TrEMBL record:
Coiled coil: none annotated. This is glutaminase. The active site is at C79 (nucleophile), H203 (charge relay system), E205 (charge relay system). Belongs to the glutaminase PdxT/SNO family. CDD domains: GATase1_PB. The gene is LOC101488897.
Length: 237
């Protein structure tokens, strides 16, 4: 059975492992640097990025994670995982948090506000529909979600989201300029790909739709026992 690493320090790693299992792929829990040597691709789950970063520091994972990304191995960050992969993160309480980096973008850590401002929405994702089939849209689950405010030239935008004014909250004056720009365009970026790096601001692992997992597996040429039968299958979480 094909193996995919899932960073298992905190957050929704079990849900990612369950989604991989539905595609016939084994998710391997990664907690130590040497465990990264056993896998060729890695998912960094959602959770709470400050806590996850503290644990990653404690386990001395940052150098190995950076090397993994720089070697060109497929890495997918969801939500807090996206924050980990961003070259630059802004937003409240960011103070000194380490990042893995590699993804040429600026992410706002809590763009959509706090837990109670979490929401679900249908996102148009043409790339996913054309590569994986299924509906034209994907159900995005946004939990204390970040958003990408700008991207470099190598970054392919896979999905954006028109921002309703009531979803934009900030008491952090350092980000106002960025937010104004985002509001002017009335949208923020919520899914991107840059070569071997995939990042989503939302949580595909909390839905029954495995198309993002299937898309990621193809980035690493991973074929699971059932990976070819991608699409919507009943959730087991
Ligand atoms: N905004 C959160 C953070 O800073 C991420 C939320 C999530 O992963 N659901 O870590």
């Amino acid at each position: 059975m094909a193996l995919v690493g899932v960073l298992a320090l905190q957050g929704s790693f079990n849900e990612h492992i369950a989604a991989l299992k539905r595609l016939g792929v084994k998710g391997v829990e990664i907690r130590k640097p040497e465990q990264l040597l056993t896998v060729n691709s890695l998912i960094i789950p959602g959770g709470e990025s400050t806590t996850m970063a503290k644990l990653a520091e404690y386990f001395n994972l940052f150098p190995a994670l950076r090397e993994f990304v720089q070697m060109g191995k497929p890495v997918w960050g969801t939500c807090a995982g996206l924050i980990f992969l961003a070259d630059k993160a802004i937003g409240q309480k960011i103070g000194g948090q380490q990042l893995v980096g590699g993804l040429d973008c600026t992410v706002h850590r809590n763009f959509f506000g706090s837990q109670i401002q979490s929401f679900e929405t249908e996102l148009a994702v043409p790339e996913l529909a054309s590569k994986e089939g299924g509906p034209e849209t994907f159900r995005g689950v946004f939990i204390r979600a970040p958003a990408i405010l700008d991207v470099g030239p190598e970054v392919q935008v896979l999905a954006d989201y028109p921002v309703p004014s009531d979803k934009v909250t900030s008491s952090d004056s350092s980000v106002e300029d960025k937010k104004e720009n985002a509001e002017e365009e009335n949208k923020v970026i919520v899914a991107v790909r840059q070569g071997n790096i995939l990042a989503t601001a939302f949580h595909p692992e909390l839905t029954a739709d495995t198309r993002w997992h299937s898309y990621f597996l193809k980035m690493g040429n991973v074929t699971g026992e059932e990976a070819s039968s991608s699409g919507i299958v009943p959730a087991q979480v």
